[in-house]
Amino acid sequence: MEIPLKKSLITAAIIAASVWALGAAPTERVPDDPSIPPRVPAVFPSTWRFPAGGRATFAPHAMVASDNQIASDVGVQIMKEGGNAVDAAVATGFALAVAYPEAGNLGGGGYMVIRMADGRAAALDYREVAPLAATRDMYVGANGKLTGESVVGPKASGVPGAVAGMMEAHHRFGSLPIAKVLAPAIRLASEGFIVDSTFQRSVGSAKYRIENFSGRTSFFPNDSGPGFGSRFTQPALARTIRLIADSGASAFYRGSIADSIAAEMQRSGGLITKEDLARYRPVWRQPIRSSYRGYSFICMPPSSSGGTTVTEILNIVEAYGQPARFGSAEEIHALASASQRAFVDRNSKLGDPAFVSVPIARLTSKAYARTVAKTISRDRADPTARLASSEREGNETTHYSVVDQFGNAVATTTTLNDLYGSGVYVRGAGFFLNDEMDDFTSKPGTPNMFGLIQGEANAIAPGKRMLSAMSPTIVLDPKGQLLLVTGARGGPRIISATSQIILNVIDHRMTLADAMSAPRLHHQSLPDSIQLEPGGFEPAVIARLREMGHFVYEQRGIASAASIMRVKGGYDGLDDPRSRGGAAVGF
Length: 587
Ligand code: DON
Description:
Shape: globular
Bound molecules: 6-diazenyl-5-OXO-L-norleucine
Oligomer: single chain
């Protein structure tokens, strides 16, 4: 009798100790939650390029999903060293600037939505601003036509916000010393990484843009791009990140990096000065809080249109009625009509809140959505011209999602706009500058590179932020627990992809893999048409949409997302199957 009792006491002690250890350890498993509703297998047309029933990466404790495997690994490493999701997001952001220069950046800007495990939520706007010398019509030539200078070359860049933003996020929410957070990116830049086919193809595809500026010497020495299997090092970029690690963002905005940017601008005829850099500030904003059929959201207010427009679309769809079957003409009609109306508002009413008054509360209200939903007929499309005329008033981005072992979550989208931005490369500092000025309304009535026709609210003015579509979003389940961290790249299509991933998860109960792989549609009001991913929709459905009066055409690759979703016992994560080289990594 004595021995078994002793044995059971010892066993109990071991169990108690391990329960204590598990409870105290930072790597507590996400509790199995019976409230997580079962997922329903999706059905896609046989012609669709991604099969239903695909798998995501599963991890019990923490995860990073980004467009670059090396950068995801860096974020995970930081969390394994005890860092939280914000440390990991900042480390991933700097690593993307090194290993994924087509979109990861120090010379661009972005947005970060944060939700801490204790319920605090924050939204950081580190969008670029127009230089002080910018003028309203700076891209309109003598012949009245757009010159193209908003897209390529030194005049295309806004004052970069990325470094200030990431450092600010770390300052407020990070837990590890910044030197530790930036160490992997410094190493990656100085020791280099092995060139794979994705990197080689990406750089090669932008040769026409890069070779006209000083990045030519780093990216195309002897006229050829980085060789497959070779080691690609960026010593100047390593020096730049080391300076930031040592002296903070002031090295970039007031110190020697600012000197290099201003010198590059002077040499090439760009507008950004040392004064512009010294004045740059990221802005903490009140996140938009909204809901959809009992789930709630935390998303980005202007200067991005993302959160407002995603919210407006979801509110209109909710007010329109119960969801129709995924991929049916009824569902597409409702969603496209809601998007069309939300984009009319986006393109005419939104802009930098420091310059124009933005009716966010109204546009994101349920009452407004009910009024708008009533204008959607059940079986007929409305021309945008009619919707727009009732108004009374005047490629390349990257998204990454992070969750940590403490329950904190971060959704970040950052961009240079085009692949490798404006092409202009800061000599001696080792990074590309953005061509974000093209996101402004260069000329009312004339489309920008995404075909967006925007209004007065988004006109160019010195110090103003150009309107964005970036939509980093965090979704909570009806009990207020973290459910989904998502966002995408792809210009205005970001808004569509983000809304549709959310709808797929909530309305259609898809797994994360299916929700991300599902065929997407896009309607941005003008051009007045529904873009559908080819092969993703049944011919009979397309015929029915045309009958309703929709103009429908095929568009391959509607945005590319990176998402993490809480599932039983942990998290599923996935980088979009539409993009190459990304990965969800976890532990
Ligand atoms: O801020 C925006 O909305 C755009 N500059 C985003 C550009 C983009 O997503 C290009 N990526 N593929």
